[in-house]
Write a structure and sequence with these properties.
- The relative contact order is 0.13.
- With 269 residues, the chain is mostly helical.
- It has a single domain (43-264), classed as MetI-like (MetI-like fold), CATH 1.10.3720.10.
- The protein has eleven helices and no strands.
- It is 76% helix and 0% strand.
């Protein structure tokens, strides 16, 4: 047995959070101190941000965060659903693989800001206050597409050739191979791609909101707070964005451990 022991994931997360907060505090008290005669600083201390969060309360932030989370979730489902559908179609019709990969690469290389400007003209924003923005949903779907397509294709190709031959010998076609062998082999890669897509979808939704696609959301709230030079609340929103992304990332990670226990249960010997 190896004498080396890995640091538990929860402990590594705590250490990383402590290091980030310590670096944040150090910057706020050294480089980004308020100018003489003013109280404004672009980087308030973490203690001031946490105090502001507690003073405002959850209700002050949930109203607009719920809109953005809803947009990111809808875009997440659309983007990943289309990516998985195209990846599976490639296995049934291998000749279109080049086309699908090229489409995925193009979506990855597109400048999101430019695409968002076009999307707000074509799709528009929210119809009523609090409604999800079509532009934010579209950008959330767009930014997750490439990662899931590539992850799914790599996962499908990792299937055991011997298992595929067994299915073929017993008369199974490509669809049977996909359903009984390739999908099981691809689950770890697909779930990893879906996990990475969670914070990406949230970021895409916020970028869509920056285009003015809604009147109540994280993006438009950040614009208002920046215009008011309220840096403490700006950083509070930043911090909550990170928390939301981490929670979503962790939930999909738990799902991956539950669905693919043969991967998460590996231990070093």
């Amino acid at each position: 047995m190896s004498s080396r022991r890995r640091i538990p994931g929860w402990l590594a997360g705590i250490i990383g959070a402590v290091v980030i907060v310590a670096a944040w505090w150090l910057l706020s008290v050294t480089i980004y101190t308020p100018a003489p005669g003013t109280t404004f600083t672009p980087v308030p201390s973490p203690f001031a941000v946490f105090a502001q969060l507690f003073a405002d309360g959850p209700a002050a932030y949930w109203g607009f965060f719920s809109v953005t989370i809803n947009e990111a979730f809808i875009g997440y489902l659309w983007g990943n659903g289309l990516a998985l559908l195209l990846a599976a179609t490639v296995l049934l019709a291998p000749k279109i693989e080049t086309v699908v990969v090229q489409i995925a690469v193009v979506t990855y290389c597109l400048p999101i800001v430019a695409v968002g400007g076009i999307a707000i003209v074509v799709l528009g924003g929210a119809k009523e206050a609090g409604d999800p923005s079509k532009t934010a949903i579209f950008l959330a779907a767009l930014v997750v597409f490439f990662t899931t397509v590539v992850g799914a294709l790599l996962g499908f190709r990792s299937a055991d050739p011997a298992s595929l031959d067994v299915v073929r010998v017993f008369g199974g076609g490509r669809f049977t191979q996909l359903r009984k062998v390739r999908l099981i082999a691809a689950l770890p890669a697909i779930l990893n791609a879906l996990q990475i897509a969670v914070p990406t979808a949230f970021l895409g939704a916020v970028l869509g909101e920056y285009m003015g696609a809604t009147d109540r959301s994280v993006g438009i709230t950040l614009i208002r707070l920046q215009g008011q030079l309220d840096s403490t609340r700006v950083w509070a929103v930043f911090l909550l964005c990170a928390v939301v992304a981490l929670v979503g990332y962790g939930l999909v990670g738990l799902l991956a451990r539950f669905v693919t226990p043969w991967v998460s249960g590996r231990a070093e010997r």
